[in-house]
Specification:
By secondary structure, the protein is an alpha/beta fold. The chain is built from 12 helices and 17 strands. It folds into 2 domains: about 210 residues, TIM Barrel (Alpha-Beta Barrel); about 120 residues, Lyase, Ornithine Decarboxylase, Chain A, domain 1 (Beta Barrel). Helices cover about 30% and strands about 25% of the residues. The strands form 2 sheets. Strands 1, 10, 11, 12, 13, 14, 15, 16 and 17 form a 9-stranded mixed beta sheet that branches. Strands 2-3-4-5-6-7-8-9 form an 8-stranded parallel beta barrel, surrounded by 7 helices. The protein starts with a helix and ends in an 11-residue tail after the last helix. The structure holds pyridoxal-5'-phosphate. Pyridoxal-5'-phosphate (PLP) binds next to helix 10.
Length: about 400
């Protein structure tokens, strides 16, 4: 559908996150279809966008959830996603998180160290429940992406080396309290090359074969997330080739493929809408100051990430476009949303649309500078609705325990 962003800005104010659920549905279907003919579970990476309405929408399409905290597990459950479609990953799970996950009877806990396996075993024993587990293997493959979002090299904190994984599987097989049902790898995010995925899938599939030879029967082959999207002019991975790469790697094995996309499903189904406050020049440098900031969309400051910024006003009668840095009101030089963006002269109140903001946008938002987080709206089948209210000052101070009366 074509979204009337100007009407949404008028109705809900700015900064405003806007999502298109029809685009999410389409992305989900394309990926699911790529795996047609093979048992598969698409476990959406909740961290990318954890709004309950987004989770409910994906859950209704058939998606499961890949979670990295018990909070995310609870979000998925609240949104109606069945426990047997939920995976709980992460390098540092606390005891109470492990306990709750076991009580919830989720599909599997994805373990990232021997020490963690010992804790899970002990907690499972106390609860009298067998814990279904998978182990995150670090295949030591360079994903050729931004170093901050690369995770599959030994120098990264994620997963365990192949030899360690083998030891852990043997231990789990011999335990009354652990059921090793899955294997997992995730080499990085925003992947645009297939070769590292092929390499990692083959390494991990070979491990599955050698485990089968010693009686450890893995049932779920979890290839993580990481499918890249177009922010600028990237060439993305062809989904049919992606699926074929994985099915080829596991040929002859009876496995359900689990895939954990976040960004692929939601990044280009979301926008951040912002209004111009002022324009100014510092020497030769032109700045357009807007009402969104790094607390709303951190990716540019955090990774120098590029987001296309589109003017939603007709500036044709205002003179030549020239490069401007689009910056927010936060007191940090790193508070920018776009660099050297070609824009005609702007006026206070003009709208700018920041593209590809549906993933790692709102979920990374903070209250820095005591700024309330933006509202979220979704559009579906031609109608738009509010799915999260704008955060007020009162919302922000609600948990602070000192007396709230103003000092005289
Ligand atoms: C284990 C795991 N699975 C899935 C994802 C989702 O990645 P993406 O949004 O790139 O698909 C991540 C991202 O950090 C991850 O760490």
């Amino acid at each position: 559908m074509s979204i009337d962003f100007t009407a949404l800005a008028q109705k809900y104010g700015t900064p405003l996150y806007v999502y298109d659920f029809d685009v999410i549905s389409e992305n989900y279907r394309k990926l699911k279809e790529a795996f047609a003919g093979h048992k598969s579970l698409i476990a959406y990476a909740v961290k990318a966008n954890s709004n309950l309405s987004v989770l409910k929408h994906l859950g209704e399409l058939g998606a499961g959830a890949d979670c990295v905290s018990i909070g995310e597990v609870r979000r998925a459950r609240t949104a109606g996603i069945a426990p047997y479609r939920i995976i709980f990953s992460g390098v540092g799970k606390r005891d109470e998180e492990i306990e709750q996950a076991l009580r919830e009877e989720i599909l599997m806990l994805n373990l990232e160290s021997e020490a963690e396996m010992e804790r899970v075993e002990a907690i499972a024993k106390t609860l009298g429940k067998e814990a279904r587990i998978s182990i995150r293997v670090n295949p030591d493959v360079d994903p050729k992406t931004h170093p901050y979002i690369s995770t599959g090299l030994h120098e990264n904190k994620f997963g365990v080396a192949i030899e360690t994984a083998k030891r852990m599987y043997i231990r789990a097989k011999n335990s009354d309290w652990l059921d090793p049902v899955g294997i997992h790898f995730h080499i990085g995010s925003q992947l645009t090359e297939l070769e590292p995925i092929r390499e990692a899938a083959q390494i991990v599939a070979d491990l599955v074969r050698s485990l089968a030879a010693i009686g450890v029967e893995i049932r779920f082959f979890d290839v993580g997330g990481g499918l890249g999207v177009v922010y600028d002019e990237e060439t993305t991975i062809d989904l049919a080739q992606y699926a074929e790469t994985i099915t080829t790697a596991i040929r002859g094995l009876d496995l359900t493929i689990v895939c954990e996309p976040g960004r692929y499903l939601v990044a280009n189904a979301g926008w951040l809408l912002t209004r111009v406050l002022y324009e100014k020049r510092n020497g030769d440098k032109r700045f357009v100051i807007v009402d969104a900031a790094m607390n709303d969309l951190l990716r540019p400051s955090l990774y120098k990430a590029y987001h296309r910024i589109e003017p939603l006003f007709d500036g044709s009668d205002r003179g030549e476009a020239s490069p401007a840095d689009i910056v927010g009101p936060i007191c940090e030089s790193g508070d920018w949303l776009g660099k050297e963006v070609a824009l005609p002269p702007t006026r206070s109140g003009d709208l700018l649309l920041i593209h590809s903001a549906g993933a790692y946008g709102f979920t990374m938002a903070s209250n820095y500078n005591t700024r309330g987080r933006a509202a979220e709206v979704t559009c579906e089948g031609g109608a738009c609705r509010l799915i999260r209210k704008r955060e007020s000052f009162e919302d922000q101070i609600r948990l602070e325990t000192e007396p709230l009366e103003e000092k005289q």
